[in-house]
């Protein structure tokens, strides 16, 4: 089995909170050495509940496979150390507001002059060139500004945010993808490049149904509640003791649904004879389906539908899904031990490669835990030099 794909790649990680750390965690899963640069106070997510043994759960999940180097970037010596580290790194990822890195003398022009092969990725809310200027951007703001928020919720209710930070996560995923693409380009050209990743851009690219309606439909996109805006039956339905989902997309699937319901003629009803008409007559179709399922338990409904090969599912809670045989067998979550002997559960990248062993998993770092090791290994500093940095407040040392 081959070594991890990125085991010769070193990443300087200036990110905090969610989008950036998710990006660099995915790269660390593939074997990259990720050196997380933190302020003496640490990443905000270290302090956000729920807390486990003094560390925020979100930090534990998103900062696996990383080393922590806590430097005061306000100091000249701190910035000098970064300049030296850049000469030994392949990638830099940051998610400050536009202009912050430049004001510290850590922008792409300065650092690429030190290392022309550097891939420099900037993650921001609206991009480095934007009419939104330098406004702060959290996930909720991006959901609102892209129209994503307006598409979620009941038709007669208010816009509804999603239960997870979808803008941050999609941005982190695109950012990790951009790093890999830029590294491949570097293999061909010999040079690194600057990569501008905007949360607004990334979440907009996750709106294909809304864009199809806007550009090619007869009505603008709008909230439709617990169903798909372009097809039916494709959504949430009621059973006697709860709710379940059906995802029917084509005539064969709808015919099988009608058979499962004991109403085969339903597939020949003019109101429901194709996807467009089923969508137009969704409420009438929903009444037929729920008249059948409303007298049955969710388990009975799912058994009947699966027997006829109709795409469907019970609606699990997050806790049920995490504990399911599917999640366990696929190994998307992994238990690992910290240096203190505490067992924690963290995520890993979800893709299985035939050419690489399972993603590595090392525990998230304690703040500043790896400063001495990184400065010694990468820059060749001796203990005395490092002690001076600690004495002067440039390096925060966990000891």
Automatic annotation (TrEMBL):
<dbReference type="InterPro" id="IPR044855">
    <property type="entry name" value="CoA-Trfase_III_dom3_sf"/>
</dbReference>
<protein>
    <submittedName>
        <fullName>Formyl-CoA transferase</fullName>
    </submittedName>
</protein>
<keyword id="KW-0808">Transferase</keyword>
<dbReference type="Pfam" id="PF02515">
    <property type="entry name" value="CoA_transf_3"/>
</dbReference>
<dbReference type="InterPro" id="IPR003673">
    <property type="entry name" value="CoA-Trfase_fam_III"/>
</dbReference>
<dbReference type="GO" id="GO:0008410">
    <property type="term" value="F:CoA-transferase activity"/>
</dbReference>
<dbReference type="InterPro" id="IPR023606">
    <property type="entry name" value="CoA-Trfase_III_dom_1_sf"/>
</dbReference>
<dbReference type="InterPro" id="IPR050483">
    <property type="entry name" value="CoA-transferase_III_domain"/>
</dbReference>
């Amino acid at each position: 089995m081959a070594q991890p794909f990125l085991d010769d790649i070193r990443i300087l990680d200036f990110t905090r909170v969610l989008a950036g750390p998710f990006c660099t965690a995915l790269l660390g899963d593939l074997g990259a050495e990720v050196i997380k640069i933190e302020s003496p106070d640490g990443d905000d997510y270290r302090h956000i509940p729920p807390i486990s043994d003094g560390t925020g759960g979100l930090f534990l999940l998103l900062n696996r496979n990383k080393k922590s180097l806590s430097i005061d970037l306000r100091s000249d010596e701190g910035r000098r150390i970064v300049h030296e580290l850049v000469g030994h790194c392949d990638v830099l990822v940051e998610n400050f507001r536009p202009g912050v890195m430049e004001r510290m003398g850590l922008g792409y022009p300065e650092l690429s002059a030190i290392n022309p092969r550097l891939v420099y990725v900037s993650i921001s809310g609206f991009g480095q060139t934007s009419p939104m200027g330098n406004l702060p951007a959290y996930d909720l703001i991006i959901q609102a500004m892209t129209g994503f928020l307006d598409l979620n919720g009941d038709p007669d209710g208010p816009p509804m945010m999603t239960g997870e930070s979808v803008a941050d996560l999609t941005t982190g995923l695109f950012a990790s993808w951009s790093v890999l693409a830029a590294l491949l380009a570097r293999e061909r050209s010999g040079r690194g490049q600057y990569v501008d990743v905007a949360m607004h851009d990334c979440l907009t690219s996750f709106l294909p149904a809304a864009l199809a309606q806007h550009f090619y439909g007869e009505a603008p996109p709008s909230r439709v509640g617990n169903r798909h805006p372009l097809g039916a039956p494709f959504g949430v339905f009621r059973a006697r003791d709860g709710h379940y989902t059906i995802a029917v997309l084509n005539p064969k699937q709808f015919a099988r649904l009608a058979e499962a319901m004991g109403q085969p003629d339903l597939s020949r009803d003019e109101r429901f004879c194709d996807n467009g008409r089923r969508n137009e007559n969704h409420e009438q179709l929903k009444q037929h389906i729920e008249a059948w399922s409303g007298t049955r338990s969710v388990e009975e409904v799912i058994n009947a539908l699966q027997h006829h090969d109709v795409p469907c599912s019970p609606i699990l809670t997050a806790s049920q899904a995490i504990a399911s045989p599917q999640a366990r067998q696929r190994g998307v979550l992994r238990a690992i031990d910290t240096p203190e002997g505490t067992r924690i559960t963290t995520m890993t990248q979800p893709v299985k490669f035939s050419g690489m062993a399972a993603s590595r998993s090392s525990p998230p770092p304690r703040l500043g835990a790896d400063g001495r090791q990184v400065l010694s290994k990468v820059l060749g500093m001796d203990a005395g030099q490092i002690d001076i940095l600690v004495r002067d407040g440039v390096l925060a040392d966990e000891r």
